[in-house]
Design goal:
Blueprint (H helix, E strand, L loop, with lengths): L7 H19 L14 H4 L3 E8 L2 E7 L7 H14 L16 E7 L3 E2 L5 H7 L6 E6 L2 E5 L10 H12 L5 H4 L3 E5 L1 E5 L1
Antiparallel strand pairs: 1-2, 1-3, 3-8, 4-7, 5-6, 5-7
Length: about 190
């Protein structure tokens, strides 16, 4: 995990930041300015996050970053707005939907390379339910958060779907030797 786990208060604060940012952006209002000096240190430190929006069990948007480059509080704020308005897979969220949207925040650990000999070795080294996976083939890259294992528990199917998300044929992970990185998340939701 990044440094140490967040407290319940820090998680609640990040969820409030995400909710306010999403609602303000959808209503075309200015975002609240975050006073970082009033935030707990863990939210001032650089952090990588994904914000996932759902309605019921259906995905409504998910945007984030794999590398920490700004304070965690600002990262969550930015990705809440992007998940609502900029996920190319969905139309932008409209105000009437706001009361139905459920927010989940995932705080990522740094990604580490996963060395593997062949496709079978890769399948054996993945840890379903624990690892977020980044697949990289040349300039193409895609990731699935560890939560995706709940919907796609079979490692081969998981990698097939990740190739598809990357814009490649599903068998790329079998026929080539793409780079693979893993990470873990601290996930919390409303």
């Amino acid at each position: 995990m990044p440094s140490k786990p967040l407290t319940q208060q820090e998680k609640r604060l990040l969820l409030v930041i995400a909710r306010q940012a999403m609602e303000n952006a959808v209503r075309k209002q200015l975002l609240d300015e975050i006073n970082l000096t009033s935030m707990p240190i863990s939210l001032q430190e650089p952090g990588a996050s994904f914000v996932t929006l759902t309605v019921g069990d259906a995905l409504r948007g998910c945007i984030g970053t794999l590398e920490a480059h700004q304070p965690l509080a600002l990262d969550v704020q930015e990705h809440a707005v992007a998940a609502a308005l900029e996920d190319y897979r969905f139309t932008p969220v409209i105000p009437a939907e706001l009361k139905h949207i459920h927010i989940e925040v995932s705080r990522l650990t740094p990604a580490i390379p996963l060395e593997y000999a062949d496709p079978l070795d890769l399948l054996c080294k993945l840890r379903p339910g624990e690892d977020g996976v980044i697949l990289k083939d040349g300039p193409h890259r895609a990731t699935f958060l560890p939560q995706v294992w709940e919907k796609v528990p079979d490692p081969a199917e998981f990698l097939d779907q990740l190739c598809y998300k990357m814009g490649a044929l599903p068998e790329v992970w079998r026929n080539k030797h793409p780079q693979v990185f893993t990470y873990q998340v601290e996930e919390f939701h409303e």
